[in-house]
Amino acid sequence: MLSVISSQRLCLVRLQRRICLSQPVGSRQRFQHMHIRVGDRAELSRAFTQRDVVAFSELTGDVNPLHLNEDFAKCTKFGKTIVHGVLINGLISALLGTKMPGPGCVFLSQEINFPAPLYIGEVVLASAEVKRLKQFMAVIAVSCVVRESEKTVMEGWVKVMVPEAPKF
Q: Judging by DSSP bridges, how do beta strands 137-146 and 106-113 pair with one another?
């Protein structure tokens, strides 16, 4: 008789679990309000000018001659002036804040690498793809690639807080 009771109790627990799993609760409910999904992608393209680099230097105080002085840059391994890495990363901020996930998105953390330089005037394509979603956070793979040469100038991961889908 004891084994029958245990077996019935096990069936009841399984039934309760199935009912519980079929109802939107906790984080399940939160995902229903998000407007992005794993696999969503977005892109943004831009070429930085010398004027952009100078303006960025003035705004931030980063006056490294590698970015501003052609004569200095010629004597480096790069051979000419390069765009600030943080300016390149700004494309990712623009992409995430305006296209995907979009307005209200907040950077929480990032891990990025700059495997090659971006030269002034090169057209770069910034790309982002949602890899994971957890509650109101998204982990997004990001990269910036020069269109003409397919040279990767920035790559990494960004964790963002995702805004709720607009309510209409």
A: unpaired
> Concatenated DSSP letters for 4-23?
HHHHHHHHHHHHHHHHHHHS
pTM score, whole prediction = 0.71
Report the candidate in 21, 30, 6, 3 with the shortest Cα–Cα distance to residue 162.
Answer: 30
**DSSP sequence for 71-85:** HHHHTSTT-S-B--H
How do residues 141-165 score in pLDDT, each as one tens digit?
999 999 989 999 999 999 998 877 6
For residue 109, which phi and psi values (nearest 5 degrees)?
A: -160, 165
Assess whether pLDDT exceeds 70 at residue 26.
no
